[in-house]
Amino acid sequence: MNIHEYQAKALLRDYGCPVSDGRIVLSANEAKTAAGALDGPLWVVKAQIHAGGRGKGKFKEAEAGEKGGVRLAKSVEEAAEEAKKMLGKTLVTHQTGPAGKQVNRVYIEDGSDIERELYLALLVDRVTSRISFVCSTEGGMDIEEVAASTPEKILSFSVDPATGYQPYHGRRVAFTLGLEGPAMKQCVKLMGQLYKAFVEKDMEMLEINPLILMPGGNLKVLDAKLGFDGNAMYRQPDIANLRDETEEDSKELEASKYDLNYIALDGEIGCMVNGAGLAMATMDIIKLYGAEPANFLDVGGGATKEKVTEAFKIITSDKNVKGILVNIFGGIMRCDVIAEGVIAAVKEVGLQVPLVVRLEGTNVELGKEIIANSGMNVIAADNLSDGAEKIVKAVKG
Ligand code: ADP
Ligand code: MG
Fold this sequence. Notes:
Helix content is 35%, strand content 25%.
């Protein structure tokens, strides 16, 4: 689960991290009061969306020469104007995809003088199963780009959970970042605070890009991106409350309400499968036959008829879907339950596209019978590759 920059900064402030003072603006008429509450002489107006690259991003509605999602302002009036201009508009960055994201919240914060922009991140390293620090002198840039062109400028190491964070970890980072004197001390302290926040709040990722060194030698967190372990939200009610559903894919949001594992993709073939492994194999084999999956969907082991109906409705609500492949291996899941769910869904929402159904396992004969007697226009398949071949053929002709 992700949260907005302004929420991330508030959380980090509670852990003692150095962040600028700022105000969130949800509607145009709040903009002036928000900007006026800050000291100036420089204001920074920042679009709040769950995607990075806002500074270099572009608004769909932008006029010639108009700036991206991070703008400087020299007066309260100017800051309020910029905030108003961003609200309700659609910002496209390299992380949003071409559709972009609507800006519903704008953060106005004090501007900072920047001497150097640095990069600092914490993440769960799957290889070592530990929390890792990543840092680089090349802040403000895409870290993927730095990793590709100048990997020697990135330092990464993991922390032994038995010792936890130790000041020498911080000194190692400070040394790599070329920090001296008070900035070195601040770095050691900041990293301890970040590590504590990361562990206590069940984060998966914490990225500060940039962390800045200011002319006076102080450090400041200028951007913050936090990602949390969704499975831990039951014990993090404060974090769960920060969820902004408008930032999520509407189909994924709907799926999460029914406990379905659904991920929207760009292809044309909708898939309804039970079991994550079979779902992956189904996506692979669709690609093998020359088409692209429109989604990943695992309805789970013990899905009910209602759950299957919802899953089918979510797939058909996707305008990119030109055909549907239902691929079920009935182990715990019974094929007749799937068949009833599919029929119930088709009755409710209709069927505009070809549907291929492959059933195997528990109650398979019963399932096939239910579908055959339904009067629905369903193409039956005998096995996985037969199913993939038939749906791709039906869609592509
Ligand atoms: P994004 O990564 O989404 O583009 P950032 O918050 O990193 O957004 O902002 C982009 C750039 O804008 C930063 O690298 C920094 O140069 C500048 N910037 C952001 N916030 C401030 C601020 N409060 N004061 C001065 N410059 C800022
Ligand atoms: Mg940034």
